[in-house]
Design a protein that fits this description.
By secondary structure, the protein is mostly helical. The chain contains 12 helices and no strands. Helix 7 packs antiparallel against helix 8.
């Protein structure tokens, strides 16, 4: 465990550089990179620069290996995103996190793990790219019928989807329309 901030920053910069290579990504995953990274985050200082590097590294990892990530890696990535997506983080970092979550949501079906991250992204970021990513995440989450009751525990996601429908681009509106259509198959949706 590396506790020295400057040394940790140097190691992180090396990992970010290595994440530019698909071969390195595969090797880093074999060495349990995601779980080790998650365990080290409690010692992170200098948040915005570090969070930017981590979010870019995770984006490279999931862009290349999203279909091969095991569930424990997906959970760890989601937990890392939960630590990154807090008040005071720059919007470009939130956008990176939304992109990471979009890739993960194609195969990861545990919406309970993703919910805090999605809510934080919606609260902290507000640009077209983030809205596009969130529409894809919400669509992907509604593809798993097991997620629907959780998404309908209150009116939050219905209200978000209505807002996105009003302001989003055509493909974003299509994602949300499909998601709402699926949610409407549950009686609870009409109550909300």
């Amino acid at each position: 465990i590396v506790r020295e901030p400057l040394l940790k920053s140097a190691y992180l910069q090396i990992l970010v550089q290595l994440s530019g290579s698909n071969v390195c990504i595969v090797e880093l995953l074999k060495m349990d990179l995601i779980h080790k990274l998650e365990s080290q985050l409690k010692f992170v200082t200098g948040k915005n620069d570090v969070w930017r590097d981590i979010s870019l590294m995770l984006l490279a990892v999931v862009a290349y290996t999203a279909h091969d990530l095991v569930e424990s890696d997906q959970i760890s990535i989601t937990r890392i995103l939960r630590q990154i997506c807090v008040s005071g983080v720059n919007e470009d970092i939130i956008e990176n996190c939304a992109n990471v979550l979009k890739f993960i949501s194609t195969r990861f079906s545990n919406f309970e793990e993703m919910d805090p991250v999605v809510r934080a992204i919606l609260e902290l970021g507000d640009n077209e790219e983030i809205t596009d990513n969130v529409s894809t995440i919400l669509y992907n989450m509604t593809c798993n019928l097991g997620n629907l009751p959780f998404m309908l525990k209150d009116s939050y996601y219905i209200n978000v989807m209505i807002r996105i429908m009003r302001n989003g681009k055509v493909h974003v509106q299509e994602n949300i329309a499909y998601a709402i259509r699926t949610l409407c198959s549950i009686d609870k949706c009409t109550e909300l």
